[in-house]
Amino acid sequence: MFSRDNWDEILEALSANWFRTVLTAFGVLWGIFILVILLAAGKGLENGVKQGFGGMATNSMFMWSQTTSKPYKGLPQGRRFSFKTGDVEAIKEQVPHLRFISPRNQLGGFGGANNVVRGLNTGAYNVYGDYPEIIQQEPMDITSGRFINHSDIKEKRKVAVIGESVRSGLYEPGEKVLGSYIKISGVNFMVIGTYKKKGGGNGNVEEAQKQIYVPFTAFSQAFNRGEDVGWMAITANDDHSITSLKNQVFDVLKDRHTIHPEDDRAVGHFDLYEEFNKINGLFVALKGVAYFVGILVLLSGIIGISNIMLIVVKERTNEIGVRRALGATPWAIRGQILMESIFLTIMSGMAGIAMATAVIFLVNNALSGMDTSEMMFLNPSVDLGVVMTALAILVISGLLAGLIPAQNAIRIKPVDALRTE
Predict the structure, then answer these.
(1) What pLDDT digit, counting tens, does each position of 80-102 carry?
(2) Which residues form the ABC3 transporter permease C-terminal domain (predicted)?
(3) How far is CA 164 from CA 3, 204, 248, 371, in A?
(4) Fewest beta carbons within 10 Å, which of 113, 199, 260, 395?
């Protein structure tokens, strides 16, 4: 416990040469400022990149058929095959821990020929034949009406849910959409809902709105797909990763389609969970780099404080000698020096945190007035844990900065100190 006299002495010692104290404190201030800014910038970049996933279920895999690369059981290499609706049920029965299995067929594509007509308006859009579960895997906001349901699937209803960009391309402003009809490759579908996505898997928000969803069964019937499945979206339960389960899925498909067990090219796939983990690993590394750089800059400031404290001890040799002669213990002398070092470090560090917070606030304030839907930088911030970590670093730094000067102070002999001028 330090008395008021101790604190008065600390303030007097630090303010005796205030310009030197300010310059010394600036090293710590700048170090902690850089640390917090780097961590906030890393978080902003992470938020922006994750926004590009558009809220997709990241524990998912997308899978499609390719040509075989090995002959097997009398069947040639280079054979083409297609997934079937029966594959979906087989995967559900034979592979545990899967949450959703959504077969999908597709028409059109970005930059393709016009395939959707309404009156005199035409457009080229991606048209998906899907099951209702797809909205759990590719979340979207239904802005009007509803999404497709299992009754639509069972009754093969020719209904469609369109994106906001499809709506603006085919309809006039204020025109009624729900209950109207659009013609997809010559087949009429009634519009039952509209949607909007926050982002696309490739980060292209505008293209994410240029899609049309229809029931899988109606799609297959209308466009003569029979039992064919173009590709599948598979999501695992939260307690199991799709990466650990995908080989079981491949084994089921290879067995059903007479594919060599070691043919790794026959089934194409994109493991979103694996890619998402790589991105998370990248941001963990960036956070590590931020701490490394910030602490190195902070270390230079700590060295400056340590040097100044050595000078202060040298300047106060007489004072320390008098205190020792009056009975001050080595621990009292050491505690006084350490307290001065910690106080200077914490005060300068808190000023650095305050400056960094002000900069982060200004950046967020500027971003709030901008359209950040397609930006790779969003909401830079640091959480309370980072602030507490910074404070812990400051306390430890203050102790380290004052340790050597404190040891030098207690080595001063009272008689020698009183002889100095």
Answers:
(1) 999 999 999 999 999 999 999 99
(2) 292-412
(3) 69, 14, 38, 17
(4) 113
